[in-house]
Write a structure and sequence with these properties.
single chain, rod-shaped
Amino acid sequence: MNASPKTRTNGRSQESLSELLSVSRRLAESATAGEWKEVAVLELEQRRMLEGFFKGNNDAPMTAEMVTELAHVRVYTDRVLELAKKQRAVLAGAADTLKKGQHAVNAYADCP
């Protein structure tokens, strides 16, 4: 998957929210696939789009469909956060193993 920054729609519109939902879905799919570089790119795009949605035309009313789509964005975001926490734990375990190995190497390096 390759993320390419899109021209984002500013303001509160169904179109901008649909684009946001699409990016959020791709973000969750990338996290599920372990594509963390892609996740970083998509997360930035998602953040820009969220800011644009809420800072834009706030006079436009929120429809029931918009509220539902925002709830889906939240579900995707929660999934990404859950996967990121699991990945962080895996990386912490690997770093601990590496640290223990380095201590062992250092202990043997001091032997005659």
